[in-house]
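Regression test case RT-17, inverse folding.

Input:
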């Protein structure tokens, strides 16, 4: 029986993963090693009982008593806190879903690769903060990374059987997010509630707001570079409001292979779960005659400054990806807390990058997890100082 673990099981991707695991036989088909959640002990316990997990870990230690109580007598180990999370990640599994949001997902991603199995990678921050380290760890241990981000899964599927050196461009699509049709001048007034609504996808709040600002797409450009190893100038972004075409790969013979599917993460999760086979998936089928037309446009640089910043980050290389992600996370925290405006996020990230670039070693590639985590902490500090000065919070 395949041994599996899910990190971030109670989130949006985590719930879709749980849904597929249950539909594909649950505890009869999978031996669940670890399930983890952030705060929702009640839901984590339900999932752990349904999949008969060995261990359930809640990141927030305050929720551990509730988890213990819910799992009492079940034989499932209940644990809490970041050390327990790291310990769970050290337990070998054949298939690991990394779906924690943010840089906190890097530890389980790296640990999973050290076991030489398959890492189903939803946590794009792992590749943005430590891409070369992640890919090298996979190579060293004979592990496989299967992308779960919908665009990257789509490009991966379009590239099946193709040689990467015949690729001219990889295009990832973007819905344009909540403010696609807003006048640019109005963006400064955007509220957290307005930014937390996605036109097509049902996702966690952070990635939904990142879709409105296109910081999500900015992370995904870097993710594309790190995962496929293609040059930044070969990576393109197209605004595609229908969110049905997820990626397009253009080859040197002038043809393009694209990937279409309903905006449902169970497509990409199910592909990674069943690879190299294709299993029946409970997702909506596309009726293209009914849909009628698909539209595409170039992203407006004034509306989405994050895309330009991502290109600067790739040009700088080294630890800049870790700085970029941490600054973005700090700015997003501040926006959600009501301390800065929606349109302050990009300038905060840019200023943090500028200040951090002046520090020694930032342009050098990450050689260890510790260096990435140190850089992450330093960048959050600088981002917070920047916000205090810029925004007078
Ligand atoms: P989410 O917020 O819905 O869920 C995140 C999960 O991580 C939850 O289980 C949460 O409790 C846990 N968590 C949060 N902070 C944590 C911490 N510090 N330590 C340990 N656990 C923590 O997020 P999501 O939308 O499911 O996204 C998860 C990841 O997948 C992100 O990296 C996101 O970019 C990526 N992704 C998501 C989607 C989507 O459709 N939601 C699509 C593509 C990629
Ligand atoms: Mg995506």
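Golden output:
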């Amino acid at each position: 029986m395949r041994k599996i673990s899910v990190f971030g099981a109670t989130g949006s991707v985590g719930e879709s993963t749980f849904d597929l695991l249950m539909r594909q036989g649950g505890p009869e088909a999978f031996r669940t090693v670890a399930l983890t959640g952030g705060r929702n002990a009640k839901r984590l316990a339900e999932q752990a009982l349904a999949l008969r997990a060995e261990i359930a870990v809640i990141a927030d230690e305050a929720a551990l008593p509730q988890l213990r109580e819910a799992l009492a007598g079940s034989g499932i180990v209940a644990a809490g806190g970041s050390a327990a999370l790291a310990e769970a990640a050290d337990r070998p599994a054949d298939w690991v879903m990394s779906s924690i949001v943010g840089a906190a997902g890097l530890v389980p991603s790296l640990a999973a690769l050290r076991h030489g199995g398959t890492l189903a990678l939803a946590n794009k921050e792992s590749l943005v903060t430590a891409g070369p380290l992640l890919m090298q760890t996979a190579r060293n241990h004979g592990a496989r990374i299967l992308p779960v981000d919908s665009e990257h899964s789509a490009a991966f599927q379009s590239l099946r059987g193709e040689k990467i050196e015949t690729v001219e461009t990889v295009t990832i699509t973007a819905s344009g997010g909540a403010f696609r049709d807003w006048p640019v001048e109005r963006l400064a007034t955007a509220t957290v509630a307005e930014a937390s609504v996605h036109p097509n996808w049902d996702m966690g709040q952070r990635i939904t707001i990142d879709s409105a600002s296109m910081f999500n797409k900015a992370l995904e450009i870097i993710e594309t570079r790190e995962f496929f190893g293609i040059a930044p100038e070969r990576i393109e972004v197209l605004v595609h409001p229908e969110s049905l075409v997820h990626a397009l790969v253009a080859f040197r013979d002038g043809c393009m292979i694209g990937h279409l599917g309903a905006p449902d993460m169970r497509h990409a999760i199910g592909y990674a779960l069943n690879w190299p086979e294709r299993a029946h998936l409970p997702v909506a089928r596309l009726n293209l005659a009914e849909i009628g037309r698909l539209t595409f446009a170039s992203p407006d640089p004034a509306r989405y400054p994050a895309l330009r910043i991502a290109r600067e980050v790739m040009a700088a290389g080294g630890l800049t990806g870790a700085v970029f992600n941490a600054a973005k996370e700090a700015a997003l925290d501040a926006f959600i807390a009501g301390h800065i405006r929606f349109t302050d996020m990009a300038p905060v990230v840019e200023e943090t990058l500028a200040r951090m670039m002046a520090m020694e070693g930032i342009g050098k590639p990450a050689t260890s997890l510790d260096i990435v985590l140190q850089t992450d902490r330093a960048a959050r500090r600088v981002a917070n100082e920047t916000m205090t000065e810029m925004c007078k919070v």
